[in-house]
Amino acid sequence: MGNSKSSEFCPKHGRHCLAPLFFHEGVLGTQVCLSLGGRRVERNRETFQNGLTFSSCPIRVQEKIHLRVELCDQHWNGALRVGFTSIPPSSCGPLFPPAMAIPDLTTIDRYWAAPVPSSLNMPEAELRFWVTPKGVLVCEGQNRVRYLLLEGVDVRSPLWAIIDVYGQTRAVLLLGSKQKGCNTCRSCPYEDSCMCVNKGLPSCTPRGIHLPTDPITTTQMDSSAERDLVEDCAVCLSLRASVVLSCGHRCLCQCCAVRVTAEFGICPLCRQSIR
Prior knowledge:
four-stranded antiparallel sheet, 30% strand, mainly beta, eight-stranded antiparallel sheet
């Protein structure tokens, strides 16, 4: 199927499609396996970690990655984490990837990841996540509610998606991606047809060319109301986030705030020191 390809364009439809999206088959957590040609990833149900995966190719700014949660195990705590890295996964050493995205990767420079809201961690739940031109990691559920997950992603370099099949989330299916601008670009469909061509005319530009900003996506990203949408504790994902850290993020419950301050000393969203 070619799920570890490095080409920027769809081999079937050329420059008229975004490259098809797959999980990176060469860089996987030790407890996960791929199926459906590299579109589905499932973690061993006997563990809650070692489920880190990455996209097989770079993801563009404003490109919305579409996922569906396939399986969940309620006997674990925590759930799916998503994000981006500017370090090519295949360039890392033999001990990579580590057990967890948080804190194993997020304490390292050029890795950004955050838990998705608990309401999106249910079987058959679909969600999209992307990074804005301002470096904001955003997640959206089927009800179109958007959550600001973190800020500070460096969008000046190519970015690979991080999808950590963690905790209660045991299996995830990639449904594709799309990028909005003056035209809508989509990843090449997995079926033998192309959604990017309308009436014989291409509606996509190749990867690497930045399309105009999606006005719907970036409207509210700087407001404090958007930050308040993230109500669950970013660590336990079960209690309400009630503690406001010195950086301004309200992302931890009282219990987790004490533990995170003692063990890590940094905000789990922006990684600034907790004072």
